[in-house]
Specification:
The protein is of the alpha+beta class. About 25% of the residues lie in helices and about 45% in strands.
Length: about 230
């Protein structure tokens, strides 16, 4: 009987020690893993420009080991990357439920936006940014001149272009809009599929659902872009 009691007491003590160890590990992971994840974010994004701050939150923090996080926020300066690099970054962030990123500017070649903020909520992605005349010129093929920007229908942006484009050596009115899951510039009233459009942004894992342009008061030839898409 005494031996049984001693055995039971030893088992209780072992269970208590194991419980204490698990609690210590959970607390330690909660304190350490989010900081390590934030540092990883800064290092990855820092390849493309200055990162001012990064914060990652997860509970339990062990979720981070499998690429899942409750939320993340990042502030950056001027970022520049290729479209494949942007695709890789966004795809790696698919496990983050709520992501907020702000940047002084974001150039995903060939398109460059100023004063950018991006929100990701589960699979829904929203990008707000300012498109300037200079930024649009950078995104169009060499030899194409932009003469004017104007409001189109339903928040689209109409651009008067000159030079050799779409096989026509004359001024052409093109509409910057969401089409076939991409952001494109396509000639108004002329449709031959992908042959008569310039792709400004595309991502195999992000479907562009809509793109709305709003003229900025007091800013010549500058438009606020509200782009919404679905990650998948």
């Amino acid at each position: 009987m005494v031996a049984t009691r001693r055995g039971n007491g030893r088992g209780v003590r072992v269970a208590l020690w194991l419980t204490a160890i698990v609690i210590v590990l959970l607390v330690a992971s909660q304190l350490l893993l989010p900081g390590l994840a934030a540092r990883t974010v800064r290092e990855r994004l820092g390849r493309y420009g200055p990162v001012l701050s990064a914060h990652v939150s997860a509970f339990p923090a062990f979720e981070l080991l499998w690429g899942h996080a409750r939320s993340a926020s990042v502030r950056a300066g001027a970022l520049r990357m290729t479209q494949p690099q942007a695709t890789d970054l966004l795809w790696n962030a698919r496990g983050i439920d709520s992501l907020d990123l702000s940047a002084a500017s974001l150039a995903v070649e060939p398109l460059r936006l100023e004063q950018v903020s991006m929100q990701k909520r589960d699979h829904a992605v929203r990008v707000l940014g300012t498109l300037t005349l200079a930024g649009l010129r950078e995104a169009l093929p060499a030899g194409v001149q932009v003469h004017a920007l104007a409001a189109g229908s339903e928040g689209s942006l109409e651009v008067t272009l000159g030079g050799e484009l779409f096989g026509v050596s004359a001024s052409v009115v093109a509409v910057v809009q969401a089409a076939q899951g991409k952001l494109v510039a396509a000639p108004r009233g002329l449709s031959l599929g992908g042959l008569t459009q310039v792709t400004l942004f595309s991502d195999p894992h992000l479907r562009v659902d809509s793109a709305t342009f709003t003229a900025l008061p007091g800013a010549a030839q500058s438009w606020r872009l509200d782009l919404r898409g679905t990650q998948g």
